[in-house]
């Protein structure tokens, strides 16, 4: 039988270990601490790379990556917020190889609209509403009566 110190209580909590035995609570706490730190680090880096995963073209990716790295190394959150906002915006492709990219996109959209109308889905013709007549315009539009001179 184990000898218990005379000043010790009759019942000891389960987390108190005997001398020479492994402290199970400390081992579990260390594992939880390491897992939490690693999980928080992975989440931070995943969140930090979010703007880079949202970009739309190569030029935008380069700008967002530079801003994200600046924010990572300087701890200035404004760079990361700027990278995130820049990633949300779609920058049109204005490369040297495709100078008419936006115009071709507009033309493609117009062709698809014309094709829809030719398929029998004819829409009502657009009617431009006339603005309400104001007093000077109403007077100008009203027929003029010839001025008569009274003698």
Write a structural description:
The protein has 151 residues and is mainly alpha-helical. It has a domain at 24-112. The protein is 56% helix and 0% strand. It is built from six helices and no strands. It has helices at 24-48, 50-54, 58-74, 77-88, 101-118, 135-141. Helix 3 (58-74) runs antiparallel to helix 4 (77-88). The longest helix has 25 residues, at 24-48.
Low-confidence stretches: none
Q: Structural class given helices, strands, pairing?
A: mainly alpha
What is the distance, rounded to the nearest whole angstrom, between the alpha carbons of the first and last residues? 141 Å
Number of continuous helical runs: 6
* Cα gyration radius (Å): 38 Å
Determine the fraction of residues in helical runs and give it as a percent range. 55-70%
Mean pLDDT reading: 79
Report the order of strands and helices: HHHHHH
Question: What is the global morphology?
Answer: elongated
Q: What share of the residues does DSSP label as strand, in percent?
A: under 5%
Instruction: Let me know the largest β-sheet.
Output: none
């Amino acid at each position: 039988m184990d000898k218990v110190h005379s000043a010790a209580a009759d019942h000891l909590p389960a987390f108190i270990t005997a001398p020479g035995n492994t402290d199970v609570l400390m081992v579990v706490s260390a594992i939880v601490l390491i897992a939490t730190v690693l999980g928080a680090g992975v989440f931070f880096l995943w969140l930090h790379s979010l703007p880079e995963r949202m970009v739309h073209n190569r030029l935008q990716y380069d700008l967002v990556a530079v801003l994200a790295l600046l924010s990572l190394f300087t701890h200035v959150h404004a760079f990361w917020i700027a990278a995130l906002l820049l990633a949300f915006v779609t920058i049109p492709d204005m490369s040297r190889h495709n100078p008419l990219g936006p115009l071709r996109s507009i033309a493609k959209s117009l062709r698809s609209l014309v094709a829809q109308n030719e398929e029998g889905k004819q829409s009502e013709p657009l009617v431009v509403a006339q603005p309400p007549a104001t007093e000077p315009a109403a007077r100008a539009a009203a027929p003029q009566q010839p001025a008569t001179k009274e003698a």
